[in-house]
Amino acid sequence: MKHRKTQLILLLMGGLVFAQQTQAPKLDLKTQILAVVKVQKDGKTLEELKPSNGLQTPGQVGVLRLTLKNVSKETLTNIRPRQPLNSAQEYLAGTASSTHPVEFSFDGGQTFAPEPLFKNVQVQENGKTVVKKVQVKPSEYTDVRWTIKELKAGQSEVLDLKFKVR
C-alpha cells in the first residue's frame, strides 16, 4: 500500500514537471503611434514616420503600428491581432497593411468583415418605416483586425494603418 502511494506521488510530480515544461505559446505585442511628416527631398514631397507620444491636432495624420513577435519555441497559427480606434482617430481608407487578410468593425469589435462594410438603417419612405442596407464609411470604423496564418518561432510581423485626428 505504501509503495502504491509513493508511485502515485511520483506520477503526479512527474505530471507537474511535464506541465511546467509545456508552456503556452507567447506573443509579444507592442503598439506605437507615429506621426506622418511631409519632407522635401530632391524636389519631391515624401512622407516620413517620426515617433510620437500622441497626436492631437485635428487633421494631423498618424500611423498606428502593431509589432508582433513570437517569443515561444513553436509556430503560432491563425493569430488575430486587433487594433481599436479611439474616438479621436479616423481610419484612412485603404491604409491598413494588406499582406495579411484585414477585417474592420463599426460596432466596437462585436462583428468584423472585409471592406466594404454594410449596416441596416431605418428610414421613412412614403410614410412607412423601411430598413435599408447602406455602406459604412471608413470614418465610422471602430476596430481593425488582421489574420496572420502563421508566425514561426522568433519571427516578427509589423502591421500598420493610417488615421487622421478628428
Tally of strands? 12
Q: Provide the gyration radius in Å.
A: 24 Å
> Would you identify the regions where 5 or more consecutive residues have pLDDT less than 50?
2-22
Number of helices: 1
Shape call = flat
Percent of residues in helices: 10-25%
N/C terminus separation = 74 Å
Strand order of the largest sheet: 2-1-3-12-6
What's the mean pLDDT score?
87
Structural class: mainly beta
Strand content: over 45%
Relevant terms:
166 residues, 1 helix, five-stranded antiparallel beta sheet, 12 strands
What report would you give on this structure?
- The termini are far apart.
- Helix content is 12%, strand content 49%.
- It has a five-stranded antiparallel sheet, with no helix packed on it.
- The chain has one helix at residues 2-21, and strands at 27-41, 44-51, 61-70, 76-79, 82-84, 89-91, 102-105, 118-125, 128-135, 143-146, 148-151, 156-165.
- It has 166 residues and is mostly beta strands.
